[in-house]
Amino acid sequence: MDITAQTALVTGANRGIGRQFVLELLERGARKVYATARRPEAIDLVDDRVVPLRLDLTDHASVVAAAATTHDVTLLVNNAGIATGASLVTGDLAEVRREMDTHFWGTLDVIRELAPVLARNDGGAIVNVLSALSWFASPGTGSYAAAKAAEWNMTNAVRLELSSQGTFVQGVLLGAADTEISAGYDGPKIDPRDVPRRSLDGLADGSIEVIVDDWTAMVKASLAGDPAELYARMAELLGVS
Question: Is 78 left (phi over 0), alpha (psi -120 to 50) or beta?
Answer without folding.
Answer: beta
